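Weekly structure sync, notes
Attendees: PL (lead), two postdocs, one rotation student
Agenda item 3: pending single-chain targets
PL asked that the sequence for the first pending target be pasted directly into the notes so everyone works from the same version. It is reproduced below exactly as submitted, 472 residues in total.
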Amino acid sequence: MPKCLLVIDPVPTNRIRLSAAFESAHYDVVTAATPEEAARLAYCDPDLVILGIQSDQPRQVIRSFRTQSFSADIPLLCIDADASPMRRLQALRAGARDVLPRSLPDRLLLGRLRGLIREGDAELECQRRRVAASSFGFAEAPSEFSRTARIAVVNNSDRLPQLPEVLRATLGHRIDRLGLDDAMRGDDSLPSLDAYVIVAGQDGATLETLLPELRDRSHSRHASVLVLHPAEHPKLAVRALNLGASDITADNATGEELAIRIDAMLERKRMRDRLRKTDEQSYRLAATDPLTGLYNRRYAEAYLADLMMREQEHERGFVMMVVDLDHFKVVNDRYGHSAGDRVLCEVANRIRDNLRACDLISRHGGEEFLAVLPDTGVIEAERTAERLRQSIAGMPIPLENGVQVSITASIGVAFGQDIETEAVSARTGTFDIEEASNLPPLRQVFDAADAALYRAKVKGRNRVEFSAAAGV
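Predicted structure, written out during the meeting:
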């Protein structure tokens, strides 16, 4: 649904102009002449507040707004009739997210507004996750230690030559000076920078050259970027926002204003990093077995469906191995389930240590493991399967009570190139186990490996058997 904006401005014509600009961009807009009037609008629950400032001091207007019953988490954008450096600084000190001049083009106003709404959404998502974690009885993660950030100043113009020194005097972070070529070159082997401060020249060439590269490269795409544009050329700010800048301000900003903006950018970056980290953890938990740390069956079957398509496209083969521990129930019955878990973890480690980084290993259920080896031929498969068997059987597994348990495994091997794969017409693009496991060619590979495993069990266990189609 559309985002809701609250416009507070004492001048009716200002409210009308702002409402028209925002509504044309498909926002829901509510207007009020004063913060007190806005607070009486019971139906108003804004995603962002636009606060118009006339001749009063910004600090007083913002304080009046904050005394109302609005949430302190709602982003506040100020539109000032006189957005001089000192008035901007006052507003930022009072808690405004940004201060823009009233004469600003609508394109820039909308561009900055979109960025602030995105930031507000990210903060709200962090709050939701904290509440959800608390409802499950999880303690909130301790606050991260605010380490010294690495910030680069990129300035290819003759403007603001003393900027690095000004930032060093106002910020407790490491400030480096980089030329355009050095910033463009980058180095994935070095620690990533946390933020860039780019001084835009009159023509904006640095922005057009550098910003797309920073957003495209792995070592810099998550860094915050503050662009300082010539105060007499606000249109450069529009270009900067469109090219991926995190924040913009005129280059007549004071050192304290820059420090406030940079610290706010770094805090938002830490929040985004936390969100990204929790997302990665969620994906990992959804795709892995909690006991062994290997991929789970759900992930493995979706991966296999995609692999079969790729191997078919490139006319390469792959190998599937089903590894099943022999007489594992005896271990559980004799030593307990905790001992059985220890055996499973050790076997998982031995399988992992004897396969390549590109091979997939999953726990397929109970005491059964699945290994998938892309681009692998018959001879290499024979050697790998036998190495796995010997690794599992070759050394007893110590338990916590000092007892050592010997375990063996039976392994069934099937070859993907021996299966008719015409039915795999497209990659699944999903982790839906029903869709992945019901693909006929994939089912054939599983059945072939299971049949080979069954023969290994019948022939005495602790051995490797290959599918009939392999002719091994």
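Discussion points:
- The mean pLDDT is 84.
- The chain has three domains: 1-142, 144-286, 295-470.
Action: rotation student to compare against the earlier draft before next sync.
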